[in-house]
Specification:
Structural class: mainly alpha
Largest sheet: 2 strands, parallel
Distance between the termini: 43 Å
Number of strands: 2
Order of helices and strands: HHHHHHHHHHHHHHHHEHHEHHH
Strand order of the largest sheet: 1-2
Low-confidence stretches: none
């Protein structure tokens, strides 16, 4: 009689809940030591390893949900994939983009010369209150690399985005099978290059919007509105999803009084500016100054972003900028009002996801001063729809964004801007048709397990 292979038996074992939780802790602890020794030449190795292990522990919650009835070998394999996704971000810690030397480093140095409160309300450059909170606090770091600290913040919010995407996919399907969108948030080139090679923090507002959307779909309006308000305090482009609040109020996903927490979250993020200036107008003047600066001193109508302006060989900033702004606002309001007229029984989690994707992809096509990072939210939302066609569209949007990244960061033009604009418009049309088809179908609701 052949002896039983203990290794095979271990790999085929289906552990109970307690064993799975212990395994998650053990893997996170092991990952801590792996990162610690990989970053042995770095002075901040302990903090880097600790943040990485905590991010893994957060995502292991989702891994355990997705592999509840799976053997040990599947749990270990999926955990390894998540570790690789985190390591992909860590591999870019030493990259110092030109934006750091030209913009961020001088700004942090100047902030150091001021007290903390004036630094948190920094006026030069018209930065939003959310980013000023991070920059102002990190300007006080002396024995810790500020570049490393900024990239670790991006890693934390990337993990939050991955965690939220899994939850959104679960709302769509009713099953804990959202590993694909979760991994997309970790290893998508657009996510990695945004912080690793460009040192932009767009993932912060994107993750807050995704987490807030998940809470709103679960009818937790208080926290959902608050997170959306905080996201707005980080980036003006957070308004892309705000029109969804109108049909969500109509269909009782959020109560009208709970919407007041959105401006409360925005004020909370910009509290330092309000305390320093004692002027409420400064809460919205910053974004107005940003728009004006980008219009006449920065990118003009577009910044390598696909859209209707990318199809124009000649376009006046003075004429088309205001027109694009008003047209975008009108289109968003009409879209929201149209959704209010649809019966509540036609709405499912997937319908809301498609509606959010239409807004996140459509508004950057007609609004001025957009950049290639504006499509990041739409890319992730399409992945979370848990459909093969929508996943292909998400990959297409990611490829278009990647070509724009290459043009913006490295100066190479893989696909011309007009071609990228046409491709994106076709994807937008497909999303609108998918949303229309979804609204026509009878109600098919999934309850998350």
């Amino acid at each position: 009689m052949m002896k039983r292979d203990p290794f095979r038996s271990f790999m085929m074992l289906q552990p109970g809940d307690a064993v799975r939780r212990i395994l998650a802790c053990i893997l996170s602890l092991a990952f801590f030591f792996v990162v610690f020794f990989m970053q042995s030449a770095r002075a901040e190795k302990t903090v880097v390893a600790l943040v990485s292990a905590l991010c893994l522990l957060l995502l292991m919650v989702r891994v355990l949900e997705a592999t509840r009835d799976q053997p040990m070998i599947v749990i270990l394999f999926v955990s390894l994939l998540v570790m690789i996704g985190i390591l992909a971000s860590l591999a870019m810690l030493d990259i110092s983009p030109g934006r750091v030397r030209k913009v961020l480093a001088p700004m942090l140095s100047d902030m150091w010369n001021y007290n903390l409160l004036p630094a948190l309300a920094w006026e030069e450059g018209y930065w939003s209150g959310g980013y000023l909170l991070i920059m102002g606090l990190f300007s006080r770091l002396e024995n810790f690399s500020q570049l490393t600290a900024l990239k670790l913040v991006n890693l934390v919010f990337t993990s939050l985005a991955a965690y939220s995407l899994f939850g959104l996919a679960r709302e769509v399907t009713g099953k804990p099978n959202g590993l694909l969108p979760m991994m997309a948030a970790l290893i998508a080139p657009t996510m990695l290059l945004c912080s690793g090679c460009w040192m932009q923090n767009d993932v912060i507002y994107v993750s807050l919007l995704l987490c807030g959307l998940l809470l709103l779909l679960r009818k937790q309006g208080i926290w959902g509105a608050l997170l959306w308000g905080i996201a707005l305090g980080f980036k003006l482009q957070s308004v892309f999803l705000m029109p969804l609040l109108i049909p969500m109020i109509r269909h009782r996903h959020i109560r009208p009084w709970q919407v007041l927490l959105l401006p409360a979250g925005y004020i909370l993020t910009n509290l330092a500016i309000l305390v320093d200036t004692h002027d409420f107008t400064q809460l919205w003047v910053r974004y107005q100054q940003q728009i004006t600066s980008m219009m006449y001193e920065g990118a003009g109508l577009i910044d390598n972003a696909p859209g209707v302006f990318g199809l124009m060989s000649v376009a006046s900033v003075r004429e088309f900028s205001g027109m694009g702004m008003y047209f975008g606002m009108a289109a968003a309001m009409l879209f929201a009002i149209a959704l209010c007229e649809v019966p509540e029984t036609r709405f499912t989690a997937k319908t809301w996801m498609l509606a959010a994707a239409v807004l996140a992809l459509g508004l950057p096509q007609i609004l001025p001063q957009m950049n290639v990072r504006s499509l990041m939210l739409a890319e992730l939302l399409l992945f979370a729809c848990m459909d093969t066609r929508r996943a292909v569209m998400g990959i297409t949007v990611g490829a278009v964004s990647l070509c724009g990244y290459i043009a913006s960061i490295f100066g190479g033009d893989v696909i011309s801007l007009p071609v990228r604009s046409i491709i994106t418009l076709f994807v937008l049309i497909f999303c609108i048709l998918s949303l229309t088809s979804s609204l026509k179908k009878p109600e098919v609701r999934h309850e998350a397990a």
